Amino acid sequence: MEATPRIAGLASCTCAGSARAGSAGRHTGGVSLHCPATLYIARHGDAEYTHAHVMSDEGGWLTETGQVQVTECAHDLADRRIAAVYSSPMQRAVESGVLASGELAVRHRELAGLEEIRVGERAGQPWSDPVTREVYDAWFRGDLDARIPGGESGAEVVARFREALATIADQHRGEQVLIFTHGGIMSLVVPRLAINVRDDLAYLQFVPNAVPARVEAGDEDWRVISWPGSASKDVV
After folding, report:
1. Signal peptide location in the record (predicted)?
2. What is the pLDDT of residues 100-125, one digit of tens each?
3. How do beta strands 61-62 and 37-43 pair?
4. CATH number given to 37-120+155-235
5. Residue 129, Cα to own-chain centre: how many angstroms?
6. Alpha-carbon distance 124 to 57, whole Å?
7. Is the pTM above the cut of 0.90?
8. What is the CA radius of gyration of the chain?
9. Are 99 and 70 in contact (CB under 8 A)?
10. Which residue spans within the chain are E strands per DSSP?
11. 3-class SS at 24?
């Protein structure tokens, strides 16, 4: 697994304090934690698709390369005492979660809300589709009211992903968890949950398969400790 760049100027968080904080940070939707949960949020392993060159909401399946990537990810986290592995319900993420949980000897759970951004009426269009690109660009500029035709608005995407991550964090206070999701949605949402990075941290970046971001979800704020994105397409 490739090394993940660490966000400059951050120290590792420690579990401190025994009382629930009075109010949670504005980004986390009301979650308040005794101790920070450490979330390792990763894109699924390399996958194949029935229609690989056009947009769709199909689940895909892991390639042999993807299986190796996920196995290496699990091995790299073996000394982190991972408490559980979660995944999106989409097949490529489920397969990643099941494989990693087996390597780490912990339970795996699918969680709705972690799915990739839904393509709506743009299904069947090439990945270079200008309509979808325009919506994505609007989201990263901060216009979350923009909507993929027949699909989701940016606000809806952020809300469901934030709720899923908050649910995990609230159940794993003081623990470390591995989460397999998707490159598009984690790039849009994760920076928006953190107080220490720009919302557009991941704009025009590529997220490698099975290389996790590290996010610490604390009492009053969330922080991105490391982010795996790169401007080079060679990482995917």
Report:
1. none
2. 999 999 999 999 999 999 999 999 99
3. unpaired
4. 3.40.50.1240
5. 23
6. 10
7. no
8. 17
9. yes
10. 37-43, 47-48, 61-62, 82-87, 108-110, 176-181, 213-217, 222-226
11. coil
